[in-house]
Amino acid sequence: MFKIAIVGRPNVGKSSLFNRLTGARKAIVGDEPGITRDRLYGSAFFDGNPVELIDTGGIIPEDKDLIPEQVLQQAQVAIQESDLILLIVDGRAGPTHLDVTLVEFLRNSGHRFYLVVNKIDSQVVEDLPFEFYELGIDEVFAISAEHGRGIEELLDKLCPLIPQGEVDAEESEATRVAIIGRPNMGKSSILNRLLGQERAIVTDIPGTTRDSIDTVLEHEGYRYRLVDTAGIRRKGKTQGLAEKLSVVMARKNIAASDVVLLMLDATEGATKLDATIGGYAHDEGKSLIVVVNKWDLVEKDTHTAWQREKEIRMRMRFLSYAPLVFTSAKSGQRVFRLLEHVNKAKLARRKRVPTAELNRFLVEKIEPRIQTVHGDRQPLMYVSQAGIAPPTFVLFTRTRKKLHFSTERFFINQIRQVYEFYATPIRIRQRVRK
Q1: Contact of 264 with 293, CB cutoff 8 Å
Q2: Ordered structural domains, the chain, with CATH
Q3: Which site among 146, 227, 241, 347 is 20 to 30 Å from 286 CA-CA?
Q4: Whole-prediction pTM value?
Q5: What are the pLDDT digits (tens) for 301-345?
Q6: Secondary structure in 3-state letters for the chain
Q7: What is the pLDDT of residues 57-87, one digit of tens each?
């Protein structure tokens, strides 16, 4: 698709324009400078033609600190792969030295770019954009990304540049995989290892990722939309609006995913917060794979993996259906094996079992093992599958009260084993006799 990168110094409204043009609150927006760090992709239709927009972090070319320098690298990648650049400036602040530097930077890059003066929110400040003509740019667009002012005029200029095309039909079929966990578990490192490039900024500083970063990966004939989410902290530990919103966005991406990779730190094992985060995916009915990362940092003997898995299972018993994979994002150990688990889980969560086969299973596997319940020796009447993703079954009983949870758990374990509902929670609805 035709690609448009949105660049500029920090806090000029790049993410607000990105959200406005994509029609979705995908990028986190706030008054705090430097909220966006990685490059963030989103799709839109301009005059019926598909466009890919890229939101970038605020550029500070002279800043050699670790995160600002990596933000610049991410922005440079976005510029190189784009067909058009929108350079966003703050109309209320007027031209700054950094704006001048960025104009020269884009001129030297040879890429086509437009200057977009943001925060022109009313007629009172309509004259402010004229100051930017002194930068030597012939065409300047005055907009308010927050209120939508001037957006139509900008689109009128952009639409004729975009070639006619169709959205890749396979894009919608990509398996959505959310990578979740506490801060500094290696989520971005796993993403970069799978993609074979520095797609997400990686540092030892917890909370480096704020926006949820999604990228399409093709591997051995399969397509995946990988979503690297911000690290989820305990509610009382989140600081500032940006961090609080990043947790909200991470949970939204869990809800929109097919399969979730729950990242743990092999040197720490599972914590109470890890179990809470896993519970978010479980409650949403998502297929789940527990990824025990940083396995290269653990001193091992023949029993280490078994012992560590036992400890994790004890902490997260409700995720007994989730496979554990010991990985090292640093060395690449077993990283691509995760995709095999993802494929298997996606097939399982969409599996349907015919009603006739289910009831044979009920008679042959379940009824002989169920003892008298509520005074009725045959409490189960029949079963049917009501839905998929996650697999949902309706149990009709002869009892006036719901079956004991142990009976329900036995049914789930048996049906998972017989029909291989791999890495996927199973939902049961009971219909009792009135």
Answers
A1: yes
A2: 2-161 (3.40.50.300), 169-349 (3.40.50.300), 355-431 (3.30.300.20)
A3: 241
A4: 0.68
A5: 989 999 999 999 999 999 999 999 999 999 999 999 999 999 999
A6: CEEEEEEECCCCCHHHHHHHHHCCCCCCCCCCCCCCCCCEEEEEEECCEEEEEEECCCCCCCCCCHHHHHHHHHHHHHHHHCCEEEEEEECCCCCCHHHHHHHHHHHHHCCCEEEEEECCCCHHHCCHHHHHHHHCCCCEEECECCCCECHHHHHHHHHHHCCCCCCCHHHHHCEEEEEEECCCCCHHHHHHHHHCCCCCCCCCCCCCCCCCEEEEEEECCEEEEEEECCCCCCHHHCCHHHHHHHHHHHHHHHHCCCEEEEEEECCCECCHHHHHHHHHHHHCCCEEEEEEECHHHCCCCCCHHHHHHHHHHHHCHHHCCCCEEECECCCCECCCHHHHHHHHHHHHHCCCCCHHHHHHHHHHHHHHHCCCECCECCCEEEEEEEECCCCEEEEEECCCCCCCHHHHHHHHHHHHHHHCCCCCCCEEEEECCC
A7: 777 665 554 444 665 677 777 788 899 999 9
Give per-residue pLDDT as tens, 197-246.
Answer: 755 444 444 444 444 567 888 899 898 988 888 788 776 555 555 556 66
What confidence score (pLDDT) does residue 31 get? 46
